[in-house]
Amino acid sequence: MLVKDKVAIVTGSARGIGFSIAEVLAEEGAKVVISDLATSSGAESAKELQLKGYAVTFIPCDISKRDQVNALFAQTQVQFGRIDVLVNNAGINRDGMLHKLSDDDWDLVIDINLKGTFNCMQEAAKLMREQGSGRIVNISSASWLGNVGQANYAASKAGVIGLTKTACRELARKGVTVNAICPGFIDTVMTRGVPEKVWDIMISKIPAGFAGAPRDVGQCVAFLASERARYINGEVINVGGGMVL
Ligand code: NAD
Fold first, then answer.
1. How far is CA 95 from CA 9, 71, 99, 138, 219, in A?
2. Contact predicate 96/18, CB 8 Å
3. Minimum CA distance residue for ligand 1 atom 18
4. Of 233, 237, 120, the residue nearest 174 (C-alpha)
5. For residues 28 and 22, what is the distance between their CA atoms, to the nearest angstrom?
6. pLDDT tens, position by position, for the chain (245 residues)?
């Protein structure tokens, strides 16, 4: 088991990639906090994994709200006594061409994807420095390199990479690793929202020839969260079937 008895928080894990990350970490022995702003589906997802016999709990949190993030970390510590792994997965998109993008869509995406990730990383940094150990895995996106119609999303995900590399430099000596994963095109509610024509174009750009499964990202997270990855730090790892080379 890669992360036996480690305590892990996964943000935005009521569904999609986050849920699969939580599931894989639980299978690999971790005690997992499923966290999401969607309270009923979050609780149901935790129940699904509890019924399989895993040590999983649900704590609601909107990562863009500082007080809720503080409460998430405080409750996790009360319940489990420590936090070994933070996976910053929660994220949204509000796509639109640069010349038409509204202030609201810019602000919302930056607030959740970038500020929300910062909020969680700051709490984790305080704890993990004291502990002298920890793993932070940030879910960025292949879009950080730039993508038509995604100025807000790409900027937020590029920001997450800047945060990742800075935190690595600040925390490495404290026994903490901080890495980013860039999923390519993964089959979730987020991507199922694209028109069929766009779906086909996306698949045609993937050397593997198919969309990834959420568990493909989960497996990479479990490895980065494990002792096996102790010397991998500040990296940006693509999980995209060869989409970005
Ligand atoms: P999804 O929309 O299926 O799931 C996102 C989850 O995050 C939902 O459960 C949602 O309720 C939650 N969430 C949204 N805002 C939140 C907030 N403020 N606080 C807490 N939770 C919040 O998306 P997904 O496809 O599973 O994507 C997960 C992550 O992977 C995102 O960060 C996304 O940007 C990234 N990503 C996805 C793909 C892909 O192909 N699906 C590709 C690259 C990157």
1. 28, 31, 12, 21, 28
2. no
3. 62
4. 233
5. 10
6. 999 999 999 999 999 999 999 999 999 999 999 999 999 999 999 999 999 999 999 999 999 999 999 999 999 999 999 999 999 999 999 999 999 999 999 999 999 999 999 999 999 999 999 999 999 999 999 999 999 999 999 999 999 999 999 999 999 999 999 999 999 999 999 899 889 999 999 999 999 999 999 999 999 999 999 999 999 999 999 999 999 99
Pocket test for ligand 1, best of 17, 114, 201, 221 (most atoms within 8 A of CB): 17
Catalytic residue among 73, 153, 185, 223: 153
Query: Can you spell out the DSSP letters for 177-195?
Result: EEEEEEE-SB-SHHHHTS-
Q: Is 153 a catalytic residue?
A: yes
The ranges assigned to domains in the chain are 7-239
**Domain with residues 7-239, CATH architecture:** 3-Layer(aba) Sandwich (3.40)
